[in-house]
Design a protein that fits this description.
single chain; 362 residues; alpha+beta; 10-stranded antiparallel sheet; two-stranded antiparallel sheet; 4 helices; 58% helix; elongated
């Protein structure tokens, strides 16, 4: 026969278990609410960061156009200076010929004919003046060509200066658009921090991000397997690979990031807008915005090797393009909810993260 004390204890344990289960359900419900709110903000963040990427690429293009324009102006100004020097030289030569003709009496050809007594001397004089006239005509023709060239250069200079003003106005607007988008992004980040308020929610968020990355890589890899491109892999390049960006390297691979989740790559802190380059010859496997990683480029190096470049400001290559070692593939940024510009970098072999520090030429 079961004692009443045992029954009471059993009932108490059952009550405690139900209470714990209810607390777990309540906690999970809170986490789900936070993740749902975070998901909405992530979508908003994605749209803003894509706008920032468009503005950044346009601004970069405009800045390059400004550099090219300034170089062209420099060349044209030198051409103008050279033409002016040549014109002054031509003026002096013509002035000298005119003075010489005047002094020898060439200004009165009829008088010269009447005063000639020696036929041979007369013939030589005629030949001499014909030579002078031809030389003078050549100088005048050269002078006219230089004047025409100078006018052409002046026209190009004016066109370039007009283009320069337009480019500067365009640059100013692009900078303003970029600043506006960045302000909106800061608001979204603050909302994200408020939404993900607990340790459990942050861990769950990282787990979702990792799953999204693996799914994206799997889909991209399936597309690559159907393509015919021979890539040699990275095995022979261990310790010799290019740094993907300039900046301060944080060696975080393998360290705990949040809860039991570990870092699977490294971070390089740099300046927004700096070039992010391919570490080796590859084909672009993935190029898009990805939750938690922002604007991401993933390169396939062959033989199961991939490299991942996240948190970019803008992506310069599309999926399917072939890139060479050192070629710019993105602009360094802080997409994916980062508080400061950095590049998140991974190397994976057959889907498994490996320590990038061992492979880069530091």
């Amino acid at each position: 026969m079961i004692s009443s004390t045992f029954l009471v204890c059993h009932a108490q344990e059952q009550s405690d278990l139900e209470s714990i289960q209810q607390q777990i359900k309540s906690k999970q419900a809170q986490i789900n609410l936070q993740l749902e709110e975070a998901s909405k903000i992530q979508r908003k963040l994605r749209n803003i960061e894509i706008l920032i990427a468009d503005s950044a690429k346009s601004l970069k293009k405009t800045q390059q156009s400004l550099v090219n324009n300034q170089q062209q102006l420099s060349v044209l100004n030198k051409q103008k200076a050279d033409y002016l020097v040549s014109l002054n030289q031509q003026k002096k030569v013509l002035a000298k010929q005119i003075r010489s003709a005047y002094i020898t009496g060439n200004y009165d050809f009829a008088k010269m004919l009447l005063n000639q007594e020696d036929a041979a001397k007369f013939e030589r004089t005629i030949s001499y003046y014909q030579y002078l006239n031809k030389a003078r005509k050549l100088q005048i023709d050269n002078f006219n060509v230089l004047v025409a060239d100078l006018q052409l250069v002046n026209g190009k200079l004016q066109d370039n200066q007009n283009e320069l003003q337009q480019l500067k106005s365009k640059q100013l607007k692009q900078q303003q658009d970029l600043k506006t988008n960045q302000t909106q992004r800061e608001g979204a980040l603050l909302a994200m921090q408020s939404a993900i308020a607990t340790e459990e929610a942050r861990v769950a968020q990282l787990q979702i991000n990792e799953r999204n990355l693996l799914e994206a890589l799997k889909r991209a890899q399936q597309r690559v397997e159907k393509q015919d491109l021979s890539l040699s892999g990275l095995k022979s390049r261990k310790g010799k690979l290019l740094m993907p960006a300039d900046g301060k390297l944080r060696k975080m691979f393998g360290r705990f990031r949040q809860g039991q989740i570990k870092w699977k790559g490294v971070v390089i802190y740099g300046s927004a807008g700096d070039s992010v380059v391919a570490i080796h010859h590859a084909k672009v496997l993935y190029s898009d915005w990805l939750r938690g990683f922002g604007l991401v480029t993933v390169l396939d190096h062959g033989d199961g090797f991939m490299s991942l470049y996240g948190h970019n400001q803008a992506l310069l290559k599309q999926a399917g393009e072939v890139v060479q070692a050192g070629e710019a593939i993105a602009l360094l940024g802080q997409s994916g909810g980062q508080s400061r510009p950095n590049l998140y970098f991974e190397i994976r072999h057959k889907g498994k993260p490996i320590n990038p520090v061992s492979w880069l030429k530091l």
